[in-house]
Structure formats: C-alpha cells, structure tokens
Predict the structure.
Amino acid sequence: MVSSGWRPPSFNKTVGNAAKKSLHMTGNAIDIMDNKLQTLAYTIKKNASLLKKYGLWMEDPDSTMGKFTNWCHLDNSTTRTDRNIRIFKP
C-alpha cells in the first residue's frame, strides 16, 4: 500500500523529518508501507542492482523505521551522483 506519493509543499511541511526539497513535492518519490521486519526494503536491498536498471534510488532501511510503521522510500532522482549502489542515507 502506498503511504505517501505526491504531496504539495504546504503538506510536506507538516510531515515529520520530511526533506525541504522532497521529491514527493514533484511527484518523483513514493513511500510504500512495509512490515515490521522491513521485508520489502531488505528484498530490494538484496537485489540492489535492479535499482540502477530501472533508474531508481532507495532510502536505506535504517532510515525508514517509524514509531508506528515502517516504509520503503523509492525515487527517481536525477540530481544524485550516479553510482552502482543506489541506496542512500538522508
């Protein structure tokens, strides 16, 4: 289930720990709800080469653990320095 997709700047300001230049505000990021073990995020991390193949970046699972829920953040940033491993820490 998508927990966050596009969001306007006014709403982005209300999201705890949201980046001021969040890619959610341009429709270039998505957060997908993950379970308490972060199965989705760790499955993607184990197959990280697919991120580059599909032009995606993923926020490191250590940074996507919430108080009540976990999520997997994916985006298609064109501003990050390209590298083989496309997993980043904010």
User: Anything to note?
Assistant: Residues 2-88 form one domain. The chain is about 20% helix and 20% strand.
